[in-house]
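From the shared-data thread, chain only:
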Amino acid sequence: YDEYQASTAASRDRRDRRVALGASYAFGAVSPYAGYRWLNGDVGGEVRSNLYWLGLRYKATPALSFSGAAY
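Structure, as tokens:
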């Protein structure tokens, strides 16, 4: 959780709030992951958004891995 509050007396009631969650699990050389970010704010104008993502990482060798994600 993160909250940013405007810094002037005229805008002290304005704030941006964010929450982000993520998870991953390793199945041998493959690691799927997922995440979510929620935003609700009015510091720079009314903003509301939900961002989701899914991804996959493949560890080909100990020194080389490939990742891909969709948002």
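The beta strands are 2-5, 15-24, 30-41, 47-61, 64-70.
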